[in-house]
Specification:
This protein is an alpha/beta fold and 165 residues long. It has four helices and eight strands, in the order ββαββαβαβαββ.
């Protein structure tokens, strides 16, 4: 089972390691003392990046800078954010067009949109109005967007996700 802790400098226990230099070129298999001396020459750290291989792969890099870049890249690997656009079932024609154009702008920027058709009060007794509204939105933006999954229906709203084509 791989360890979650990265071994650095004297923390590396393997007697022989495969060393990768700061410029990315492979130095080869060296004894741990020679590898540590090489890292000191570069005024950098010897970091074990692949402990599962035989011999383990170590890089000569600035450890704190590498940790910072690694944490920074993890934060930006989230999935594409959703934008929620909510329609009331009794929306006017012009308001409908404005919201649909906004959906097209978001889709044009490679975003994902969650469209909700919300029913209030007595509208709950007529779910076909929400279904028609969702169909109309899909038809309006069909040139730039496609439906991801199916329409999720609940008593008070119908929801569909649109993604770029």
């Amino acid at each position: 089972m791989p360890s979650a802790v990265t071994r650095v400098n004297q923390g590396i226990k393997a007697p022989i390691v495969r060393v990768v230099l700061p410029n990315g070129s492979l130095k080869g298999d060296l004894g741990i003392r020679e590898a540590l001396a090489l890292a000191r020459e570069y005024d950098m750290d010897l970091v074990e990046v692949s402990p599962a291989t035989n011999p383990p792969v170590c890089r000569v890099i600035n450890y704190s800078k590498w940790q910072y870049e690694k944490s920074k890249s993890v934060k930006h690997h989230s999935s594409a954010p959703f934008k929620d656009i909510k329609f009331k079932v009794g929306i006017g024609a012009n308001d409908f067009k404005v919201k649909c154009k906004h959906i097209e702008e978001i889709i044009g920027k490679k975003g994902q949109v969650r469209v909700s058709a919300i029913m209030h009060g007595r509208e709950v007794n007529h779910p076909e109005l929400a279904e028609k509204l969702i169909r109309d939105v899909i038809e309006f933006v069909q040139a730039s967007a496609k439906v991801d999954g199916e329409v999720k229906k609940s008593p008070k709203q119908h929801v569909v996700t649109l993604v770029p084509r």
